[in-house]
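Appendix B, Record 12. Input sequence as logged:
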Amino acid sequence: MKNISVLFASTGLFLGLVSSSCNDPQLLAPGGDNEVKGCTNQEAVNYNSEAAVDDGSCVVVNEQQNSIFVKFTATWCGPCGGWGGSAFTDAIASQGSRMLGMSLQVNDGLTTGSNGPLVDEFSNKWNYSGTPNFAANEIMVGTSVQDAINEVSDHSQMLPKLGVGVRTTLGAGPNAGKLNIDAYIKNFEETNADYHLAIYFLARNIVASQNTSNGYDDAYVHHHVLLGAATYGGAYGEEIIIDKAMKAGDITHFSRAVSYDASWDLDELEVVAVVWRKDPNLANTFYYENSTTNR
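Logged structural output:
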């Protein structure tokens, strides 16, 4: 099966989508010899000390505080296809190495049963007042993209408590038609809280009709559109660290084979991850902790 080039954000790491029947790093090297394949980078969270041949599977989680930047938008919204679209992509281009950009479609032509419920949950979190609206981390900034960029800049100066990285391969054998997803959370300091992991599917580029300042454009390119989630539990994913004392250097591993929509263009698919911290006192309340990025 051919390689399909896909951007998998793992705090700045580019990975190729490759054919695999499992996620076992201890695979025999091509040619029938007995050399073990795996990650040989000692800085990686999935380093395999027994591997003699690197198989390109390494995931390095950098000690970097990233931000999340979301746009509430709609295909029926003229300003969204005008200044809102360019403001969104320009912000990501300028801050991409430390920011995860995500477009949330509100009751429009790109809303589906997979992304609609997630957008509804995020709408409650940030309490947006219209489209286009923007939010960064815990702050709803409305139409002020500059305020969002300032928040990202300030947030990047913080020392992260933990980071997250993702590796994804195209399944074969019993996992044919699925994506094998491995996510790793690495602690940089001691924590003792309830953390959730959410893994989202985004379309890097998707062509769909969009209202603009000059009427509808049927060739409009939408960027970083939320398509759905690989994790269960809605917008904030699944409990992965449950009120457990974690030390610096500890690594938490999540692995799952996930079916995907056959209509998705895998060449344009982004698989990204966000770690959310659950409020111990307020039900269904989560705070952004860290994430991968679109790079």
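The chain has one domain: 67-163+182-291.
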